[in-house]
Design brief:
The complex is a heterodimer of chains A (358) and B (118). Chain A has 358 residues and is an alpha+beta fold. Chain A has eight helices and 19 strands. Classes of the chains: A alpha+beta (358), B alpha+beta (118).
Amino acid sequence: MVTTKSPLHDEASASGAKFVEHHPWPLVSTFGDVSAEYEAARSTAALYDSSHFGRLSATGADVLDLLNRLSTNLVESIDAGSGARTVLTDERGRILDHLQVFNMGTRTLLIVGPQNRERVLEWIDKYTIVDDVEIEDVTLSTAMFTILGPEAPDRLSSLSGEQVRDLGIYHWANVSIQGTGVQVLRTDSAGYPTYEVLAKTEDALALWRAVSDAGIVPIGTEAFEALRIEGCMPGPEAELTDAYNPLEAGLWDSISFNKGCYIGQEVIARLDTYGKVQRHLVSIGFPEGIRVEIGSKLSYEGREVGSVTSVAQVPGKDGLLALGYIRKEASTLGTKLTLVNDPTASAEVLATAPGPQQ
Amino acid sequence: MTVYAEDGTISISITDKAKDKLRFFAQKEGLEDDFGVRVGVKGGGCSGLLYTLSVEKDSAPEDKVVNDGGVKIFIDKKAYIYLAGTQLDFSDGLNGKGFVFENPNAKKSCGCGNSFAV
């Protein structure tokens, strides 16, 4: 069966949600009130449909060993019940995908960027020569919801049991939400307690209703993007592409520098050892009335130093907030930048992606 | 010297120095003179593909088996396309690299020589 929409599409559409085009299917941009959605995530708990992210199920004796040889983090020793973030890099050390890997006992779950399913499958297949590894794309037969916010642990544990409250980051558990069996994965992001809830597609709608009826507020991509950009988190298709390397993106906690070789390791080790990272991911604030879009070029002291990769209107704030990769000499907090095509437009570096010391 | 498998295809050769070292390691593993050298390839390493090397008593059913001057070489058929024509040497000395693969299929190799790309 070819699915071209989220399992929640019709329900969201009937409730008046607005949609934005995206691959592999349209995403809800807002359920009606972006500010309320954004505030829910900041002050209580929010529910976001992440089903468009890819989910690959890998089986075989060599899965973790192979992933350890192909990606940046130490994943060969992940126990059943836990997981890690790791970066699939090419020979040049560039980002193919920033994936989450969870050892589910009988299988390994890979959560990959929405438009990277085929690419990751092909990449792993290319390097599976004698290894015992089978990978199935389970994106369409499963649904995934993100629950985030300061009250997410309380709200979710009251729905699914105390086991969830005790989950450490990158740990997961099988639980039941109103009779529906799900896997809950703790993945904290953008500075908030965060969980991914995995369910079968046929259970998605009832599950969504149960969670939202419990007061966890559904949010769309506008609010989610505002939270992500505010948190200076690189996102798929925008910052997590092969135009950049993981050190530029601040993905230090997804890299092991002493685990040994993986594809791209020589390049990444050299960038780190000799301090050769040339640009950094930062968030940039613009004053009200300044028009900024993806690709807008930025300058510092008359020289072009980077461009905008994501942009959002953060509710309650004047002006736009953007992410961009900026040359290192202009990437420190408080640096004043301007737009290349509008030198009168002042902008400021407001946050930086994590560095090696953080 | 190019070594050919029984089916006439180009195979893998081992230098005399590498054979001596392989015999040494085989004896350490209790295999005496009855052993084969398994050479293979798996994904990973800085450049994408990694060499694997071990001494084993028996070949596997799917192996291509070659005899190079009395030393048996076991090659997994899936790895063969990456290795045809390779010579296995041994680099000794204080700064030696140990076993070294001279692989005509490798377009690029990483600094340590254990990983390559085709």
